[in-house]
Amino acid sequence: MVIKNPHALLDRLIAERAESAWLEFKQNNGDPEMIGRCVSACANGAVLVGKERAFIAFGIENGTRKKVGTCVRLSEMTKGAENFQNWLTRMLEPRLMLEFLDFEQDGLCFSIISIEPSYDRPIRFAGSEYVRVGENVKPLRDLPEQERALWLATSRHRFESAIALTHQSAEQVLEILDTSAYYSLTGKEPPKSADEIIRQFSTMGCIKDDSEGGYDITNLGAVLFARDLTSFPSVSNKSVRLIKYVGGDKSKSEREIESRNGYAVSFAGLIGFIRDQVPMEEQYVDGVRRATPIFPMIAVREVIANALIHQDFTVSGTGPMVEIYQDRIEVINPGNSLIAVDRIIDERRSRNEKLASTMRELGICEERGGGIDKAILEIEERSLPAPEFFASENSMRVVLFGPKPFNKLSKADKIWACFCHCVVRWLGHDYMNNTTLRARFKLTPAEYQAASTVISDAKKAGRIVPADEGQGNKYARYVPYWVR
C-alpha cells in the first residue's frame, strides 16, 4: 500500500502510546543486520496482533518519542557493494512488500520502513525468525508459545484479505470496482439496490466495513473486479501481459497488450484475444469443415486460470504473462511452484485459496481447483505433445505445443507424454496400457511396437511402473512411479 503522506504517517505513529510488536522507533542506528532483524520481528508482530502493516521509524528519540531527526538515509544505504533494499529483500524469506521513505519535516530528516507482513509463514531474516518482546528483538525459536501463536495467525491471514484501498464510500466502491462482472459471470440478476451489491461484495470478502462510515477494498476485490488495477498499489503490477511473436522466437513481436482490468472482468476477453491471435487449421467438426485454433482453447483457458490463481503476489515488479509463438504458447506466473513438477497434474494445493474458490464460483477455473488434468485430456484428444512445466525460484512456466507428428517427437517428448497419459488414466481410476497409449498418439494397431518402445523407455527412465506384479508384456498395465 503506497504511502502518500509520510508526514501524517509519522505523526500518527508518534501518537501511539508506546513502541509495540509492530512499531519500532530509532534515531541513528542504521546497521543493516540490526534493521533486518527488526523487519522480521515487526512483520511477525504485526501478524500476531492483526495489523495490516508494521513500521520502523528513524529520527525519533527512544522513550520520549521526540522528533530529533536522523542521519539514516535508506535510499543511500548499501551492504557491501549491494543496494541496501535489494540486499534486505534477498535476506528475507518469504518475500515482503517493503516501502522505504526518506523525507524532511520541520528542517529535520526522517526515514520510515513500511512492512506488509507475510501471508503464509513467519518471516525469516538470514535464516532465522525474530519477534519483539517489550523493546527487545528475540529469536522466535526461544519463545515456543509465541511461535505456535504466530504459525496459527499466519495460517489465517492471506494476501487476499489484506487491504488494497482504504476508506471508500459505497459510491466510490461501485465506481472503482466493476461489480456487474460478478452478476454476468454467475448469471444472477443484478440487484436494483446499491446496498444489496455492497452486502454481496462484503460477504465475498472483496470489501470490508472500516467502522468509519466507509469501506476498505481488499486485494481480492481489487485483483478480481478492478476497473483499473493501477488504482491499487498492492496489485498495480499484476495485470496480464500478452505478447504475440512472429515465428518461433522473441526476435520480433507482432502485437502486445496489457489488460488493466481485474481478472474476473477481463478473463473472457483475454481468452478471446488469444484465440484470435493463434494459428488456425482446418478440421471437420460434426461433419462441417471449420477453421480451429491449433491449440485447444480449453487447455489454454485452464493453464491461464491456474497461472492467475497460483501466482505469488508478493513477488514485486511482475505479473502473469502469456507469450504466443507460431508453434507454442508459454504462460508464466511469478512465484515458484508449491508442487513438484511430477505431481502437478494430480496434486491440489493453492497459494491463494480465497482467490481460487471465488474464481471457481465465477466459473473461471476448474471446479476441483486443478484444471491441469482437464487440459491434458483435451491435449491428448487432439494428439498434441504433452505440455511442459518449468519451475524456478521466482516463476513457473507452462508451455503448450502445437501439432507435431509422432515421428518428429524426441525420445524425451514421448517419455514425458507417456508419463502424463499414465497420470490422467490413474486419476480416472484406470490404467495405461499399449492400447490407450496408441490411442493417445493416434497410432494404428500395426504400430503396436512403437508404443511398446515408448513404454519400455518410460519404464527405464523410472516414470512408470507395472500395476501388477509378474504381469506379461502383452496385456501389461501401468501406473505412475509414485503410486507404488
Q: Would you spell out the secondary-structure blueprint of this structure?
A:
Layout: H1 6-14, E1 23-26, H2 32-49, E2 54-58, E3 78-79, E4 82-83, H3 84-91, E5 92-93, E6 97-105, E7 108-116, E8 124-125, E9 128-133, E10 136-139, H4 144-156, E11 163-168, H5 170-176, H6 180-186, H7 194-203, E12 207-209, E13 215-218, H8 219-225, E14 240-245, E15 253-259, H9 263-277, E16 280-285, E17 288-293, H10 297-310, E18 321-324, E19 328-334, H11 353-361, H12 372-381, E20 388-391, E21 395-401, H13 411-427, H14 434-441, H15 448-460, E22 464-466, E23 478-480
Parallel strand pairs: 1-2, 14-18
Antiparallel strand pairs: 2-7, 3-4, 5-8, 6-7, 8-9, 9-10, 11-13, 12-13, 14-15, 16-17, 18-19, 19-21, 20-21, 22-23
What is shown here, in short?
With 484 residues, the chain is an alpha+beta fold. The chain has helices spanning 6-14, 32-49, 84-91, 144-156, 170-176, 180-186, 194-203, 219-225, 263-277, 297-310, 353-361, 372-381, 411-427, 434-441, 448-460; strands spanning 23-26, 54-58, 78-79, 82-83, 92-93, 97-105, 108-116, 124-125, 128-133, 136-139, 163-168, 207-209, 215-218, 240-245, 253-259, 280-285, 288-293, 321-324, 328-334, 388-391, 395-401, 464-466, 478-480.
